[in-house]
Amino acid sequence: MAGEGLEERQKTSYRYWVRETTTEAAPFTVPRKLSVEDLAKEQPQSASLGSVWNRAGTWEERNLSTWGSSRIKELLVDLGSLEFDSGKANILDVSSCVGEASLVTVRNKKRIGYSYEIALKFQGEWLIEEEMKQIQGTLNVPEASYGDLEDMQLNVSLDSDKGIPDSKRMFFFFWKKIIKDLTSFSSPIQYRLLQFEAELKER
Q: What is the b/e burial string over 7-23, where b = at least 16 CB atoms within 10 angstroms of the residue's CB?
């Protein structure tokens, strides 16, 4: 009788049940390492503006200064030529484009910023005293920055005064006219910088 009581207690205990499992019982769960595809399925499919590691789009800042300088040069060197009342001019080269550009993602929203100092070489010709004179020089943009393009300044410097009359009065007359004509490049420069801003936002 004592043996039967011991056997009965063993059958009802958890320990005995585990030891006496049959082939009909459910198999033990085996741990499995999740793959990248498994993790992707588990995560909500929401649009993220950050990098792969920044799915939440909390805070991320990317330095795009090198790309920005190169892209601005590409956009401005292709400005083409402008026609004036008594002459014309075109951009030869973007000799300098120094500054910085960045793209910040904050709470899944993009914020851009940039500031560059730009110098463009130009050549042109003007009708001076019934003769076309070749003029070359530099267009300088002291600061082109996000949000301030409407106030962008464009300074003009001539490589030489050759072709402009020696008479002081005539010299200043033609010099001022050439400078005024060349400042017309402000609008196309601003337009290309707005194009640069749009591209910066999509980086």
A: eeeeeeeeeeeeeeeee
